[in-house]
Design goal:
alpha/beta, 6-stranded parallel β-sheet, Peripla_BP_I, elongated, 19% strand, binds beta-D-fucofuranose, 307 residues, signal, LacI family transcriptional regulator, carbohydrate binding, SBP_2_dom
Length: 307
């Protein structure tokens, strides 16, 4: 085959494959499953040798994985950081070894931005604002307090921090909107259910649930139904992601509003890997595009939902 063809950019001239080390957060949610699939499929399509490591939601596992990738001298390291803080040391090690790092999905709070090439992912603050904006509109004529409970994502993670702050920023425009309880459900169904049970026990008058992802909302729906209440009616539910199971619940009227967060980051990541290997200029921030869905929208969109 003519290996010098310019379209065959994914392979080095001698036919050597690009090796990409990827450290994934875990398998905590439907979003994550779709994200992992997208990364694995896109790496295969691009012809890269993907070394995939699952951190099971633990930062220490990610740090270990990154150190292993450095030892293995991979061409590029990409990872989705479980939490925002505490990355400087290991990122410095990668930099000193001359291995470029790409952040996907979640950000780090390192002030030294030379430690990574780019961050590809959603604007989580904006997602929180979208959730808040819909709620403000729904309750604009409220004469009594609106009691909101919040299921936060993994403590210290960028999506939990940002979805909270974006939401708070918007709902503060109406003092009737009150977050009466807020706790982490670690982005899982099991925890979402467990924490919602506790919320229901402690608070007899919950009007709204804001869940930082669909999975926690789905767990919470089980708890709400078990308590003899109607999700989507007795308690208005807002969530983030827009995975298929979330769409199903929304089309049944159990979730009232979903803010989309796109997990299909694989193609953009592989493009960025190629650009970095080729020594091309790359944007420091690549934001993914997404929308919002009411129950009606969800009904219409459900047949097209791929994940
Ligand atoms: O919303 C949640 C997952 O980091 C955007 O992580 C991602 C979040 C996503 O567990 O479902």
């Amino acid at each position: 085959a003519s290996s010098s063809s310019t379209t065959e950019t994914t392979k080095a001239p001698e036919g050597k494959k690009i090796t990409l080390g990827f450290s994934q957060v875990g398998a905590e949610s439907g979003w994550r499953t779709a994200n992992t699939q997208s990364i694995q499929d896109s790496a295969k399509e691009a012809g890269y040798d993907l070394k995939f490591s699952d951190a099971q939601q633990k930062q220490e596992n990610q740090i270990k994985a990154i150190r292993t990738f450095i030892q293995q001298k991979v061409d590029v390291i990409a990872f989705s950081p479980v939490v925002e803080s505490g990355w400087d040391t290991v990122l410095k090690e990668a930099k000193d070894a001359g291995i470029p790092v790409i952040l996907t999905d979640r950000a780090v709070d390192s002030t030294d931005t030379s430690l990574y090439e780019t961050f590809i992912g959603s604007d989580f603050v904006e997602e929180g604002r979208r959730a808040g904006t819909w709620l403000v509109e729904q309750f604009k004529d409220a004469t009594e307090d609106v009691n909101i409970v919040e299921l936060q994502g993994t403590t210290g993670s960028a999506p939990a921090n940002d979805r909270k702050s974006g939401f708070d920023e918007i709902i503060s425009s109406n003092p009737k909107l009150k977050v009466i309880a807020s706790q982490t459900g670690d982005f899982t169904r099991a925890k979402g259910k467990e924490v919602m049970q506790a919320f229901l026990k402690a608070n007899p008058d919950i009007d709204v649930l804001y869940a930082h992802n669909d999975d926690m909302a789905l767990g919470a729906i089980q708890a709400i139904e078990a308590a003899g209440l109607k999700p989507g009616e007795d308690i208005i539910i807002i969530s983030v992601d827009g995975v298929k199971d979330g769409f199903i619940a929304a089309s049944e009227g159990k979730i009232n509003f979903i803010v989309e967060c796109n997990p299909l980051l694989g193609p953009q990541l592989m493009e960025a890997v190629q650009a970095v290997v080729d020594g091309k200029e790359i944007e420091k921030r690549i934001v993914t595009e997404e929308g919002v869905f009411t129950s009606e929208d969800a009904k219409r969109e459900l047949p097209n939902r791929k994940y």
